[in-house]
Automatic annotation (TrEMBL):
<dbReference type="GO" id="GO:0042273">
    <property type="term" value="P:ribosomal large subunit biogenesis"/>
</dbReference>
<dbReference type="InterPro" id="IPR001680">
    <property type="entry name" value="WD40_rpt"/>
</dbReference>
<dbReference type="Pfam" id="PF00400">
    <property type="entry name" value="WD40"/>
</dbReference>
<comment type="subunit">
    <text>Isoform 1 interacts (through WDR repeats) with NVL; the interaction is independent of RNA or pre-60S ribosome particles. Isoform 2 does not interact with NVL. Interacts with MTREX; the interaction dissociation in a late stage of rRNA synthesis is required for appropriate maturation of pre-60S particles and depends on the ATPase activity of NVL.</text>
</comment>
<dbReference type="GO" id="GO:0005730">
    <property type="term" value="C:nucleolus"/>
</dbReference>
<dbReference type="GO" id="GO:0030687">
    <property type="term" value="C:preribosome, large subunit precursor"/>
</dbReference>
<keyword id="KW-0597">Phosphoprotein</keyword>
<dbReference type="InterPro" id="IPR015943">
    <property type="entry name" value="WD40/YVTN_repeat-like_dom_sf"/>
</dbReference>
<dbReference type="InterPro" id="IPR036322">
    <property type="entry name" value="WD40_repeat_dom_sf"/>
</dbReference>
<keyword id="KW-0677">Repeat</keyword>
<dbReference type="InterPro" id="IPR037379">
    <property type="entry name" value="WDR74/Nsa1"/>
</dbReference>
<protein>
    <recommendedName>
        <fullName>WD repeat-containing protein 74</fullName>
    </recommendedName>
</protein>
<keyword id="KW-0488">Methylation</keyword>
<keyword id="KW-0853">WD repeat</keyword>
<feature type="compositionally biased region" description="Acidic residues">
    <location>
        <begin position="325"/>
        <end position="343"/>
    </location>
</feature>
<feature type="region of interest" description="Disordered">
    <location>
        <begin position="321"/>
        <end position="378"/>
    </location>
</feature>
<keyword id="KW-0539">Nucleus</keyword>
Amino acid sequence: MAAKSQICSIWLGSETGILKGVSLTKKQAFNFCEMSCLSRDQEVCVMAWGDPQESEVLVGSVNGTVKTFSTDKGIFTETRECGDPSQGRFTGLAVTDSSMITCVESGLLKVWKEGSTETVEVNVGNGICRMQQNPSQRHRVATGGKENPLKVWDLERPDKPIFSAKNVAHDWLDMRVPVWVRDIGFIPDSDKIVTCTGHHQVRVYDPSTPQRRPVLEAQFGEYPLTALSLPASQGTVVVGNTHGELAILDLRKGLVRGCLKGLAGAVRGLQCHPSLPLVASCGLDRFLRVHSLEDHSLQHKVYLKSRLNCVLLSSRELESSSADDSGDVEEVKAEEEEDEVWDTMETVMEKTKKRAAQKNEATVTGVDGKKKRKLVKK
């Protein structure tokens, strides 16, 4: 399994609890799990890199465990109990230099220090949908959820948030606008934060200014937005919704710069490559898709047999060479999952041969009244 895991550049977590690795160079996909002990409570909720070298993948499950997968060895090396299933599933997972950060739906954020049983607990409010770490300041995280506005926390001083967003003004009917933050992203080389909501809104906040309300608001489509990701080229954001629609929005003017087609189900996982103009998406239609952000074309399409919840991209190149000049989409077939039912079924060939022979025969009535079959030449 070590040889298989070392060539994978994209990792995905499924509803069935299987960690899946995809190699676009070899055009192969692999399953990394114990097939004998799979259960529904092992559904993968969140994933994150365990170290800067990207040699470990942290996998958070519904049952509250965080497993460490070694990409060098191709096996799970550690399992930690980091949550109570009664408090909800994981909504965020991150690491700092010496600790691991987890957050669950009930709003309990924990900092697990390495080599110590003590944890730092922060109550960030109920109904959390997403916890996101600041890549440039790793001790800062942002949280948000249903009727829980955007908040930024400094884990070195976790007593209170360093920024708390204020809801927008009442609508034209003078009614309160509901709050439902679904995903969060930190804009590189700035203090600004972008969020997407369950009411198809994209908002940009600037904690460096006294204004607590969004400095920019845009809308896309009519359905709830579920995920967002920021490309390597600044100034845009990629968002996905529950109807399988992907769009690139301009963060300066709030306009839609293009749509990425091909999806057939709700988007659950979305991540842009840190250096290349590529974005990977996955969701309920069981496909991993890689789109180009330059010409908006579909570059790769991978069927992985299970509903997918999250995607994690390696910072290295996803493939050694670019797509074919003909522009055809590469479709990768996943490795067959172990299934004893298919292994025990016997292959039946006689009926197929018999039907083929009957197609080449015709019934002829002889002089004696008996029916005979005669071979028909084509």
